[in-house]
Amino acid sequence: MIAQNLFWILWTGLIGLVVGSEKRPNIVFILADDYGFHDIGYHGSEFRTPNLDKLADEGVKLENYYVQPICSPTRSQLMTGRYQIHTGLQHSIIWPSQPYGLPLQYPTLANLLRDGGYTTHALGKWHLGLYKKEYTPLHRGFDTFYGYWEGGEDYYTYYNCDTFHNRTIEEEEIPSQKEGPWCGFDLRDMETPVTNMNGTYSTHLYTGKAVDIVKNASNSEKPFFLYLAYQAVHTPMEVPQKYMDPYSHIKNEYRRIYAGMVSAMDEGVGNVTKALKDSGIWNDTIVIFSTDNGGQVFGGGNNWPLRGNKRTLWEGGVRGIGFVSSPRLKQKGAVSKKLMHVSDWFPTVADMAGVKVKEDLGLDGFSQWSMLRSGKSSPRKEILHNIDIWEPLQGKMLYNDTFDTRVRAAIRVGDYKLITGNPGDGKWYPVPTTVDGLTPPLPAEISESAKNVWLFNVVKDPYESIDLSGIMPSQVRSMLDRLKAYNATAVPPMYPQSDPKCDPKLHGGFWGPWE
Ligand SMILES: *[C@@H]1O[C@H](CO)[C@@H](O)[C@H](O)[C@H]1NC(C)=O
Ligand SMILES: *[C@@H]1O[C@H](CO)[C@@H](O)[C@H](O)[C@H]1NC(C)=O
Ligand SMILES: *[C@@H]1O[C@H](CO)[C@@H](O)[C@H](O)[C@H]1NC(C)=O
Ligand SMILES: *[C@@H]1O[C@H](CO)[C@@H](O)[C@H](O)[C@H]1NC(C)=O
Ligand SMILES: *[C@@H]1O[C@H](CO)[C@@H](O)[C@H](O)[C@H]1NC(C)=O
Ligand SMILES: *[C@@H]1O[C@H](CO)[C@@H](O)[C@H](O)[C@H]1NC(C)=O
Ligand SMILES: *[C@@H]1O[C@H](CO)[C@@H](O)[C@H](O)[C@H]1NC(C)=O
What residue range is the signal peptide (predicted)? Predict the structure, then answer.
């Protein structure tokens, strides 16, 4: 604790303000949950997303943009600018009954902005730890919070059961209904349990709170940071009927409900945008929109034409929807093919806000502000997608003097992507309607369970259909050496057993700190 405090004092001493001529912008970061790559109007979806499309059309669409394949890791990288090999969150998500969270020594984006003079608000999903109150949003740089601390729940009742309880790492790969003995509510206003919202759909609840914050903040001199982390469009499959009505032609029930969930979220984004405009602060605001990971195919999502699903290291798991919209951008209506990663938001938003990170904090992210604002080149040449030493090993080791190819990992260097170990389900899921006449190429190796090395040129072949590992051994070798070098910098992953003290019955029926 002493070491952490020392680090903290040093860190807070390291920032300083850049005083520019422009008013510092408000920053609204909207994070969707499990939103599939295909499922936005401008990617050719059959869903109608007019508000998202309009915002993106007026801004910069990110078409070479990467996130993590699951929730907590993406949120950890967004909040700290660090790969999860450097925070210990390499393996899976934080389940409600597990006693851990995003380590406290790393300042969050909210800490940075608050120290730089912003008011900071978080709405919706947190999912970066709840077992001690120090891990929850008001202790991680946010002035206000309204939402839930764990990873998922019912959209109307705000009730959830832990599904992790003593599952083994092997069992984790199997979609499971195995519930732990612990169930409870999870909705808080600041830190106080909320009990009077039963029946209100969460997309409406968080949108309404966001609109209130925008209206209120427009009277303030201070700029604000609003982190709007929607529950939508994660499972469970729930939406008010009226949002599904336009999609009665969709036969698959999950897909139909999910379409409605997307429409409700799109309406919410429209409401927040309208509030910004009506309040006269649109010119001084930057809106960022991102998914947290690829779509969950079994929950109605679709990542077409990309291969794979949420949880996998295929492009369908990690390549995300993302855009930035603001009158402050010099390039409007641009489509950027420049490489960007979710860990880049921390330094990028710092630059947007004129909050300078003076010393090297050891970030893995790069500032992309000049790329976004003016179309300059991306400073990023590589992405470490992940190294997960706790995933069961697959196949045989290819070389004995570099990275062990049995280990689940993936890395992007330039146009190439190398995958090792067991990357997860690599199927293409049928597209609901045709997209530009594309048909998925079918891979030969899909059933080879011992295979553990793949190399793709994902710029020429975003479908990951042509494995180049056999014909480019020296490229494979040099990328394995990069993985080895990253692995040498990794901290051990954290993934503790459930703690029975988490039981919400012991805490007034709510999920919350038990230590
Ligand atoms: C869960 O696992 C822990 C550690 O293996 C064990 O001590 C505990 O008894 C288990 N709990 C239940 C309910 O099985
Ligand atoms: C929430 O509302 C549902 C449906 O009206 C009801 O079944 C449930 O008991 C309510 N839950 C609470 C905690 O009031
Ligand atoms: C958006 O605003 C309209 C008008 O106030 C409201 O009827 C609708 O429910 C809002 N939508 C969401 C998702 O909050
Ligand atoms: C509006 O701002 C004031 C002053 O900053 C604060 O006290 C109040 O709680 C805010 N209201 C809402 C709805 O956010
Ligand atoms: C926003 O900027 C535009 C273009 O510079 C200007 O025409 C408009 O009046 C500004 N709106 C407000 C509310 O300041
Ligand atoms: C590593 O592989 C090389 C060639 O494949 C072999 O000659 C060597 O004995 C191996 N070293 C170890 C430590 O297994
Ligand atoms: C990664 O680093 C850890 C810790 O140094 C080491 O035990 C492990 O063998 C390395 N794994 C690979 C695949 O290089």
Answer: 1-20
